[in-house]
């Protein structure tokens, strides 16, 4: 990990003041990823996710510049997170009580800061402090670098899921059991 890296934790209210910075990094990271990764859709997603109980953000900065972040939230009993699973999984797999599963919605690092331990530092800072028994995330199947990193951090691919959002790609569902 970089010596000059600063990690900072935010709750939903605290993060409101840096929304434009979060969106700007998102747009940089997903600049060539297609229409689904638009500013409008992401602002709506970020706003909706921030409303979830337990929403937590960890940012990575160096010299005051935002270079990466990760955020997520515990899945509520009435979550729609699992809607769109394409392959059969047990009913127990998708049962949530608000304390079982922490969902990571975004983990991103600016292109010039990748392969320097920033993503791992963000991941460990957020996931390492969670009281839930497992965490989940969605990753594009064609993002082989991210999938390899997640596997090396103890994540397992379980199935695939296509969210109901307009133009949504299909994602691999990954799960990590937490200590």
UniProtKB/TrEMBL annotation:
The lineage of its organism: Bacteria, Bacillati, Actinomycetota, Actinomycetes, Micromonosporales. GO terms for molecular function: acyltransferase activity, transferring groups other than amino-acyl groups. Residues 5-179 form the N-acetyltransferase domain. Keywords: Transferase. SUPFAM superfamilies: Acyl-CoA N-acyltransferases (Nat) (SSF55729). PROSITE patterns: GNAT (PS51186). This is Acetyltransferase (GNAT) family protein. Gene3D superfamilies: 3.40.630.30. The keyword Transferase applies. Pfam families: Acetyltransf_1 (PF00583). It comes from Micromonospora nigra. InterPro entries: Acyl_CoA_acyltransferase (IPR016181), GNAT_dom (IPR000182).
């Amino acid at each position: 990990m970089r010596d000059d890296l600063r990690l900072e934790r935010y709750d939903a209210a605290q993060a409101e003041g840096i929304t434009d910075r979060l969106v700007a990094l998102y747009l940089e990271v997903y600049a060539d990823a297609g229409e689904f990764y638009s500013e409008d859709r992401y602002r709506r997603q970020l706003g909706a996710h921030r409303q979830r109980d337990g929403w937590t953000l960890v940012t990575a900065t160096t010299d005051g510049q935002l270079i990466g972040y990760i955020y997520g939230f515990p899945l509520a009993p009435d979550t729609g997170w699992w809607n769109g699973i394409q392959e059969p999984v047990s009913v127990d797999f998708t049962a949530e009580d608000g304390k079982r599963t922490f969902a990571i919605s975004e983990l991103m690092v600016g292109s010039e800061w990748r392969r320097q331990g920033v993503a791992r530092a963000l991941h460990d800072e957020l996931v390492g402090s969670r009281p839930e028994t497992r965490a989940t995330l969605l990753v594009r199947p064609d993002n082989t670098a991210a999938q390899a990193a997640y596997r090396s951090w103890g994540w397992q691919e379980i199935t695939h899921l296509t969210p109901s959002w307009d133009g949504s790609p299909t994602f691999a569902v990954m799960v990590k059991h937490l200590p």
